[in-house]
Amino acid sequence: MSNELLKNYRRVLALAEAGLYYGQDAFDKERYQELKSIAIELINNVCDEPIETLERLLTKEDGYPTPKIDVRAYIKHEHKILLVEDTNTKEWSLPGGYAEIGLSPSDNISKEVLEETGMNVRVNKLLAVFDTNKREDIPQLFQYYKLVFDCEIISGSFQKNLETSHIGFFNLENLPILSQKRTTKEQLMILADRHSAYFD
């Protein structure tokens, strides 16, 4: 998948969606709808998702298009980092996921950690904001702002669930296979050495 092409096609799609949202003229709306369909076809040419999946993912949102929000928890214990193993891919990442509407960022990450690990956490501070568009080598269908929070476990124990098959604490020199779209080694290295918030 060509990341530069994908970014350009996503931008065309965003402009078409903005035109559909703000446009008043019926003929202009028709043109924006056609432009949106063309953008989806172009995205399909450079990504490995079936056109039906793309149409479902890219046509269900109304309103002005903005980056999506991903929240992650950075939890350390004895100089090791808590990671969770995805049940389906068997790849590991910081616990977290998509931010849900109606919850604050800290409420979102508390909820995600509880769902994925069975543990309650205290959210201490925002450590970093990563922009997935900055990783040319890891193209993604959507642009995400990844908010990573420093958290500490206050209660609970791991409960196997639909999302997570295992959890573990790892040091940076002995990491398992990471889910690159969720968590990279470079991100973990930045987080391990933060005394103030990092942002792309």
Which characteristics define this entry?
Nucleoside Triphosphate Pyrophosphohydrolase; 8-stranded mixed beta sheet; NUDIX_hydrolase_dom; single chain; NUDIX_hydrolase-like_dom_sf; elongated
As for the CATH topology of the largest domain, it is: Nucleoside Triphosphate Pyrophosphohydrolase
What is Rg? Answer: 19 Å
CATH architecture verdict of the largest domain: Alpha-Beta Complex
Can you say what the CATH homologous superfamily of the largest domain is?
A: Nucleoside Triphosphate Pyrophosphohydrolase
Strand content: 25-35%
- Find the count of extended strands (DSSP E, 2+ residues): 8
Name of the top-level CATH class of the largest domain:
Alpha Beta
Flag low-confidence runs. Answer: none
Q: What's the story with the biggest beta sheet?
A: 8 strands, mixed
Q: How would you state the average pLDDT, rounded?
A: 90
Structural domain count: 2
Structure description:
- The protein is elongated, with a radius of gyration of 19 Å.
- It has helices spanning 3-22, 26-46, 51-58, 105-117, 185-192; strands spanning 68-77, 80-86, 92-93, 96-98, 119-131, 144-156, 164-170, 198-199.
- The chain has 200 residues and is α+β, with helices and mostly antiparallel strands.
- It has 5 helices and 8 strands; from the N terminus they run αααββββαβββαβ.
- α1 (3-22) packs antiparallel against α2 (26-46) and α2 (26-46) crosses α3.
- The two termini are 23 Å apart.
- A hairpin with a 2-residue loop joins β1 and β2.
- The relative contact order is 0.17.
- The chain has 2 domains: 3-58; 68-199, Nucleoside Triphosphate Pyrophosphohydrolase (Alpha-Beta Complex).
- Strands 1, 2, 3, 4, 5, 6, 7 and 8 form an 8-stranded mixed beta sheet that branches.
- The mean pLDDT is 90.
- This is DNA mismatch repair protein MutT.
- Keywords: Hydrolase.
- Residues 64-192 form the Nudix hydrolase domain.
